[in-house]
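Sat 14:20. Reprocessing the chain from the morning session after the first attempt stalled halfway. Input below, unchanged.
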Amino acid sequence: MLAGGVAHAQAPSQADRALAQSLFDEARALMDAKRYAEACPKLAESDRLDPAGGTLLNLGVCHENEGKLARAWVELNEALSRAVRDGRKDREELAREHVNALAEKLTRIRVVLAADDAHAGVQVKLDGEEVRSLSSPLPVDPGPHRLVVAAPGKRAAQVTFEAAANGKVQDVIVPSLESAPADAGQSLASDGSGRRTAGFILGGAGVAAIGVGAFFGVSALSKRSEADALCPERRCSNPTGVSLQDEAITAAWVANIAIGAGLVALGIGGYLVLTAAPDGKSAQIGAKFPLF
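Finished this time. Tokens:
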């Protein structure tokens, strides 16, 4: 029961296949009219609804004619693999012909980082998409592009460049990343030592407040006991007894307020201490186990 079953792609429905064929036919007519910007999205949707080697091959050719050479190169290589897998020699020859032609004009970029920035924590995004490896040049479409490089403790650097369809490898030089300034107003939430210090101070104040409250609580009970001895009746006519009753009420109020404030301060202090991580960053205890 615990063994996972083999995952199978869900077969397209009859409706999906019909729509995919309709989109394919429309796209082919648009390609014949050299309206590639309209044809390519229809081919992409057709291949999504009903993946087929012929559709992907046409999509690659469409993007090649549209000028999106890197995208076409990826799609045509995939179409080549499908053709080999399916034993379609005609498609294999056509795909290989286009792949070889693209290789002569496909532009690639080599991201060149400063020596002190080329470490494991660096993150590179090309046109908003993460680049997972810089070990080899990256194929790109001709035209403008935006490269963003970031690293822990550094300011992100942005480089814009223009790629030409010349089949060459183009170096994109990323300037040395500047160190990010320390936050002068760093809050207790991100400063572990500050959180612990504040927690201990609040906790100590809370204990002191509870102690004061306990003192007044005992005093209130004592004065109430003396007042009851002088005034056994509900209505008291003894001035001393009346004064003791008033003092007992006041002491009780002070006790309630002091103990309540002390418990709150003690709770907040404990929370700050518990959520202060040893490395100076706030631990996420409160996020999973709310204390209040």
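The CA atoms of residues 245 and 259 lie 21 Å apart.
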